[in-house]
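May I ask for a sample protein chain and its fold as tokens?
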Amino acid sequence: MLNKKEIRFCLDEMEKMFPHAACELNHANPFELVIAVLLSAQCTDVLVNKVTDELFKKYKTPEDFLAVSLEELQQDIRSIGLYRNKAKNIQKLCQSLIDQYNGEVPRSKDDLMELAGVGRKTANVVASVAFKEPAIAVDTHVERVSKRLGICRWKDTVLEVEQTLMKKVPKDEWSDTHHRMIFFGRYHCKARNPNCTECPLLVVCREGQKRMKKR
């Protein structure tokens, strides 16, 4: 496991590599962000952005999503994985926004997690990106990078990874760290072909050092 100094080194190096890391899901407001993040489950941001480019022209409000049949909405997001389930959740979520929050997206993470299709990760993304609340959303990239580097243990659950990162990363850096770790995992420390040979973190990364010995 990395010590405090080594973690600081990792955070600083990731900042140098990805100083402008930010949410790559296109959105114009918190409502569009919630829909985009819901659609992004087990799907790439690139594909979601392709779909939402047209989707957000057709649907501007929760009422718009409820004004069409479920089948029509399914067709509009058909190219996205799990589109049937996601369409159902979008309409349920929109109904909840109208019934409970006057059509507005709630700011509280607990309230967000009560919405259909919104789990802890989605709530953290929305809180962080839309409302500038300090949060670390643990997606597949954040989990993989945290475990490979040894900030967290291999056996840790997603919740344990989040809690460990919240303890080990300064609170005012949570949101930036979340985005930088995603970029680091998406573009550098990839699942199948991590770029260990050119990684500035190799000096502290046991997983990377193991991989280099096997070459």
Summary: Residues 107 and 127 are 6 Å apart (CA to CA). The mean pLDDT is 96.
